[in-house]
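Quick start: read one record
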Amino acid sequence: MSRFSLYIFDLDGTLVDTLRVWSQMTRTFLVRCGLSATDGEISAMDSMTFQQGYAHMCVQFGLDMPYDRFVEVWLETAAELYAREAELMPDALQTLDALRRQGAKLALFSQSPRPLVEEVLTENGLWRRFDGIFLSGETASPKGTPEAVLEVVSAMGALPAQAALVDDAAYAAAAARAAGVFAYGVGYRNAKRAELEPQADAMLEALGDLR
């Protein structure tokens, strides 16, 4: 039997190695719009939701584009890179399957746009491994808030003390702990590990550590 009855997994940087792809997508999108940014400015947007990223680009870089058009252009720019470059983290499928065999429910909670999430889930055989798919922007509260974590836990029929979040972002781990949910911090391939470690209840050096 697994330690928790529910595991809530992040996608980018946790199950799929896509964070470097996000940086490429952001830079390509800005160039397409006649804008530019430093590596540091692009890295600062890594933890933003899609809606927050749009607002940030409008203020920081002078992006002059309605939100609906932004979504359209971004997805056009991102689709090819995301589908081609996204790779599963080592032991991802084996770990998910092991947790399911142990009786745990699995949920995905991502802040990526639905078309990109669906592409990655389909291409990597992840759809059937999750009992629930939750996306920031579709939940009542945005990812990174205790309210959003509790919303997912409740929708999955669990209690906070029975659930664990697995994520590579410090803000997500902090939200989980504030909600009374155990927070696993993803340490592997994580350039922002130093920010994450103080917020996590435990650090994972590999996904297989959950098994």
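The longest helix spans residues 67-85.
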